[in-house]
Amino acid sequence: MKKFVIYGGKKLKGKVKVSGSKNATLPIMAACILADGQSVISDIPLVQDIKTMGKLLEVLGATVEYQDKNIKITPDTIKNYKAPYELVKTMRASIYVLGPLLTKYGQAIVSMPGGCAIGLRPIDLHLKGLEKLGASIKIEHGYIIAKSKKLKGNTIVLDKVSLGATINIMLAATLASGTTIIKNASKEPEVVDTINFLNSIGADIQGAGTDTLIIKGVRNLKGSQGYSVIPDRIEAATLITAAIITKGDVFVYGFKPEHLTLFFEKLKESGAKFKLENSGVHIFPYKSRLKGIDVITEPYPGFPTDIQAQWMALMTVASGRTIIKETIWENRFMHALELARMGADIKIDGNTAIITGVKKLTGANVMASDLRASAALIIAGLTAEGITEVRRIYHLDRGYENLYQKLASLGAKIDVMDESII
Ligand code: UD1
After folding, report:
1. Using one digit for the tens of pLDDT, what is the confidence trace for 363-380?
2. Where would you tag: which of 234, 333, 367, 422 has the fewest CB atoms within 10 A of its CB?
């Protein structure tokens, strides 16, 4: 296993481009199952989760080809409807194949995803929604076994805003008969991108970006000659936070600032210096400390849970007290204990973290617990005095494309070493 050895205190400088969105590419890849014929998806990030979804589609019988930043998916040879435990356990987004398999082939067997480091991660809303469309579902031996004749449109009110359930139900509804209405749907840009892709291949979905989606079922969908996925707003926020914590001078570009409106509001309140452009942001150095600014994670357009850990890292060295409330995942503060090893002052009370800013962090050995926690520890390491070793960085490969190279190109001093070497 690899670890990052970070020599803290280098101000980042230069420009860096954001990659395509992992969280948009994954549902779009699953949506390709619905089409008749090949789809070409462009600007994808070559990260582990994408390869895992590619592998899953291959296991189902699809043909998957990678070419630079493109992926070509031909679903016509799918003959297997089972998503095995071995793949689902490594990537929860595997559950996205449930809706498409069921609606197109009338059957699907998908391993139950189970919990993970950040929380229980239930899928009851996915299953209830599919049942409302007419599926019969049972759970046996750790697998969801779903069957149906032709699914039939219905009105589904989600108990809670769920990105995953919105996607799964919507994917199933595209080929159902009649109209499906999803109320209290997710408004996340990744859902909007999936809808734009689906509409580009012949689906009829209205209401993208609002809490009500109206999906008129169609007979079939054609493949796509080329669809570019949106840039990764979470990667953008991660790079921006890294630049700011080092008081760097960096242009982060190739993303949509409007996907990060609240994040930029919070940065402004904290006193960070930056200038927004159409598709990027200039981060400027600042002299004094940032001010501690509270955030509450909420569904889009609220503050993203996927930036909570990075925000916490930034706030550890801000002045005053910051309160971070995590409302999406019940166990998403694992990075707090590791940040404390670097000198951060953080108290956890249920889903609330109370951070009292310190003047500086000091390098330490720390352990990453999940994808975004890894990013937070690296951000902290970039500003800490001395050397920070971040272990279990394999989590990063799941969702950040070339993060090491990108940070190094901005002047960060990081060695990637074998964990066994002390
Ligand atoms: C969530 C985030 C997404 C983030 C991802 C990984 C939201 C709305 N979604 O997406 O931005 O990229 O985690 O960190 O912020 N829930 C149920 N039953 C279900 C499904 C979900 O109770 O069947 C609950 C979850 O426990 C959670 C909330 O709904 O509290 C949102 O979950 P959901 O959006 O489905 O999770 P992801 O799709 O993983």
Report:
1. 999 999 999 999 999 999
2. 422
Of 169, 163, 200, 181, the residue nearest 21 (C-alpha): 163
Ligand 1 pocket test target in 300, 328, 332, 333 with most atoms within 8 Å of CB: 328
> Ligand 1, residues 131, 157, 163: which to mutate, most atoms within 8 A of Cβ?
163
Query: Where in the chain are all domains bearing CATH 3.65.10.10?
Result: 2-19+231-418, 22-228
Q: What is the pLDDT of residue 16?
A: 98
Query: How far, in Å, are 106, 232, 308 from residue 381 at the CA level?
Result: 50, 23, 17
Q: Is 127 in the pocket of ligand 1 (CB under 6 A)?
A: no
Contact (CB, 8 A) for 380 and 342? yes
Regions of the chain with pLDDT less than 70:
115, 421-422
116 in active site: yes
Bridge partners, residue 414, by sequence: 6
CA 310 to chain centre: 14
Q: Is 126 in the pocket of ligand 1 (CB under 6 A)?
A: yes
Residues 6+ apart with CB under 8 A from 333: 312, 326, 348, 353
Residues 189 and 183 sit within 8 Å (Cβ to Cβ): no
Q: Quick one: pLDDT at residue 422?
A: 55
Q: One of 116, 117, 137, 354 is an active-site residue; which one?
A: 116
CB of 103 shorter than 6 A to ligand 1: no
Q: Ligand 1 center to residue 346 CA distance, Å? A: 25
Q: What's the number of CA atoms in the CB half-sphere (13 Å) around residue 256?
A: 11
CATH superfamily to which 22-228 belongs: Enolpyruvate transferase domain (3.65.10.10)
Tokens of 316: 């550890």
Class of domain 2-19+231-418: alpha beta
**How distant is the alpha carbon of residue 171 from its chain centre?**
19
326 three-class SS: strand
CA of 301 to the centre of ligand 1 (A): 14
> What's the predicted TM-score (pTM) here?
0.97
Average pLDDT, the chain: 96
